[in-house]
Amino acid sequence: MFVERIVVGPYQTNSYIMGDEETSSAWIIDPGNDAQLIIEHLAKHTVSPVAILLTHTHWDHIAAVGALKQHWPEIEILVSEEDAPFLSYDEVKKVCFDRSFMQKYDEDLKLLCPATGYVADGQILQDSHLRVIQTPGHTLGGVCYYHEEGQFIFTGDTLFAGSIGRTDLYGGSYSDIIASCKHLLTLPGDVQVLPGHGPASTIANEHNNPFL
């Protein structure tokens, strides 16, 4: 099992590939931009993606989804039911405040397509061994993906190294994100936190997070 971080797009979004070279399978977490770069990294490891897993559907985490779906038509696209409506060009236009991003990545965003399935709190995703943890606050339907055996968690824009996600956008809630982050802090201290932006951390380190 390996996890590789690929930093993409103007927001320096952390997209991740979690792969198993023994089974040649992989999972793509939050493909924010640069679909071709993600494709090249998968080819380097000689793995094929089973699914795209989305922690939430803000534009800087989903802009490459459509292009990846075109490249691999059978790939699953999994997200919470609450955030799924924003896998749509028209819906992204309604909530995206960054007009320059919309202009620059207009063609990519027009390729967006609906989710193929929904994830729910406590669900174990087949073969990946990832457990879904519901973490609203940054968005209505934000989730994290926890790999208990590997002791790492993809936290999207819920929990960062020394910070938390913003709550001033549509569906955001400060009280919800604080509750979500405190729930994450009940995980073992050596669990590696792999956030949507910035450096990795650990649950132990985040017990000193000034926002919590």
Task: Characterise this structure.
The chain has 212 residues and is an alpha/beta fold. It has a single domain, classed as Ribonuclease Z/Hydroxyacylglutathione hydrolase-like (Metallo-beta-lactamase, Chain A). It contains seven helices and 14 strands. A hairpin with a 4-residue loop joins strand 1 and strand 2. The longest helix has 11 residues. The mean pLDDT is 97.
Topology:
Layout: E1 2-8, E2 13-20, E3 25-29, H1 35-44, E4 48-53, H2 65-71, E5 76-80, H3 89-95, H4 99-104, H5 106-110, E6 117-119, E7 124-125, E8 130-134, E9 143-147, E10 152-156, E11 159-160, E12 163-164, H6 174-184, E13 192-195, E14 201-202, H7 203-206
Parallel strand pairs: 3-4, 4-5, 5-6, 10-13
Antiparallel strand pairs: 1-2, 2-3, 7-8, 8-9, 9-10, 11-12, 13-14
Distance between the termini: 32 Å
- Derived from helix and strand composition plus strand pairing, the structural class reads alpha/beta
Q: Quick check: average pLDDT?
A: 97
- The CATH architecture term is 4-Layer Sandwich
Overall morphology? globular
Order of helices and strands: EEEHEHEHHHEEEEEEEHEEH
- Count of alpha and pi helical runs: 7
The top level CATH class name: Alpha Beta
Helix content: 10-25%
- CATH topology, anyone? Metallo-beta-lactamase, Chain A
Major β-sheet profile: 6 strands, mixed
**Please, what is the CATH homologous superfamily?**
Ribonuclease Z/Hydroxyacylglutathione hydrolase-like
Please indicate the percent range of residues in DSSP E strands (runs of 2 or more).
25-35%
Please count the beta strands (DSSP E, at least 2 residues each).
Answer: 14
Number of domains: 1
Rg over CA atoms: 16 Å
Low-confidence stretches: none
Q: Strand order, biggest sheet?
A: 1-2-3-4-5-6
